[in-house]
Amino acid sequence: EFDGVIAIDGPSGSGKSSVSRRLATELGAACLDTGAMYRAATLAVLRSAVSLTDTATIIKVVEDTGFEFGTTPEDRYTRIEGENVDDAIRGPEVTAHVSAVSGIPEVRRHLIAAQRAIIADAAHGIVVEGRDIGEVVAPDADLKIYLTADPAERAKRRSGQNGADLAATAADIHRRDTADAKTTRPHDAAPGAVVVDTTHLDLDQVVTALHELLAHKT
Ligand code: C5P
């Protein structure tokens, strides 16, 4: 039975979330969507109506807010003070501001500590997905994957998911990847990571490839 840590990094629309969720379910492991954590922090900041230039107060809001992240296949959720916010954190307002909040070093430090605690608690293994997982959050992961895909394909997948216009989605992905590149490295694989280009692969094919990589590693 798998009880290790799998780190999955990649830019928006690379398929990280769907692939990670499916892989975790098939392994009977937990799955941590670290993007959801940065999104929840951003929603808490937006709700508190603090100015987005007031970094010190933003840090305080993030540190003082009660977040909960359910990571098991049967029980996956994001909560702020007990309220489920899974839909709210995917909205355009959060997406527009998440890079500004995730770019604050103290916010990252706080959430990375929370991520490491969740990883340490995972009894049956965990798939962790996001931006700086293989390099910063879980450098000792048993398997590190960097998922990537052509920008046009990534935009197509994202607009298919949220029903938004293709050109607007492509522009938004590009804007966010560029902003994120200041703090994380969305375009680079972590040392020791296996690069998987998903441009011409469907979900089943990617998940099968990851099972094979895992079998070789462990
Ligand atoms: O993956 P998702 O689109 O939900 O990520 C939302 C945002 O959260 C990213 O654009 C990035 O700013 C931030 N993020 C991060 N580090 C992670 C995961 C997400 O900075 N590990």
TrEMBL record:
The first-level EC class reads: transferase
Q: What Enzyme Commission number(s) apply to this enzyme?
A: 2.7.4.25
Q: Which reaction does it catalyse?
A: dCMP + ATP = dCDP + ADP; CMP + ATP = CDP + ADP
Give the UniProt keywords, A-Z.
Answer: ATP-binding, Cytoplasm, Kinase, Nucleotide-binding, Transferase
Question: Where is region (Disordered) located?
Answer: 1-17, 156-189
GO MF, one example = CMP kinase activity
| SUPFAM superfamilies, alphabetized | P-loop containing nucleoside triphosphate hydrolases
Alphabetical list of Pfam families matching this protein: Cytidylate_kin
Tell where it localizes. Answer: Cytoplasm
This protein's record includes keyword ATP-binding: yes
Is Nucleotide-binding one of the keywords UniProt gives this record?
Answer: yes
Domain of life of the source = Bacteria
Biased composition of type Basic and acidic residues is found at 172-188
Tell me which residues bind ATP.
10-18
Which residue numbers delimit the Cytidylate kinase domain? 6-213
> Which terms under GO biological process does the entry name?
pyrimidine nucleotide metabolic process
Instruction: State any GO CC term.
Output: cytoplasm
Q: Which family does it belong to?
A: Belongs to the cytidylate kinase family. Type 1 subfamily.
Protein's name according to its UniProt entry? Cytidylate kinase
* Organism for this UniProt entry: Stackebrandtia albiflava
Species lineage: Bacteria, Bacillati, Actinomycetota, Actinomycetes, Glycomycetales
Q: Which gene encodes it?
A: cmk
